[in-house]
């Protein structure tokens, strides 16, 4: 009976120790919602304010991600608020090596930005997919010293990049238009088509969202 009384208060503590010892676990801290923008979106005269956006108007598995005009919060009651489709959060992943991030839709934290398989060619698109547990490489991202958001694909770094020549596009029935297509491409130094601005500010390069 005495042993039972001693062990009972220790059980919650043992559970915490066990959980924190797991490698590459998802950290409990998640950042506030952020928008994600092209590196040069505010630096080129006449360029539209663009944000990474879930297309189709619904946060569902398989929804594609492109660049659309940044939404404003509704000014009048009853107007639809679409800002949740441009609001992302980052969860830090602890482990060896460089700090990695899972980027989730803030309104649906079970949905992660996914770049597809490691053998996907340059030009592959991005989708929302169920966050894998344990995390998979296609859903792991980080910042570098050029403020880019990138993911390691095999032995190559893949960046979020605006598709060259892509323009305003809106299919019948779509609630809003895509202004630029978003794709993954092998990273190149100081390419202003690459994406990495967070909330209108350059990322610090520390891995924070």
Q: Main attributes?
A:
mainly beta; 9% helix; 209 residues; 14 strands; Trefoil (Acidic Fibroblast Growth Factor, subunit A); five-stranded antiparallel beta sheet; single chain; disordered N terminus
What percent of residues adopt helix (DSSP H or I)? Answer: under 10%
Would you identify the regions where 5 or more consecutive residues have pLDDT less than 50?
1-30, 41-47, 200-208
3D shape: globular
Count of individual beta strands: 14
What is the CATH level 1 assignment?
Mainly Beta
Task: Give the SSE order as H and E letters.
Answer: HEEEEEEEEEEEEEE
Biggest sheet record: 5 strands, antiparallel
Number of helices: 1
Mean pLDDT value? 76
What would the CATH topology be?
Trefoil (Acidic Fibroblast Growth Factor, subunit A)
Strand order of the largest sheet: 1-5-6-7-8
Derived structural class:
mainly beta
In whole angstroms, the N-to-C terminal distance is 50 Å
The share of residues in extended strands comes to 25-35%
CATH architecture: Trefoil
Protein name: Ricin B lectin domain-containing protein
Pfam families: Ricin_B_lectin
Signal peptide: 1-19
Domain Ricin B lectin: 47-194
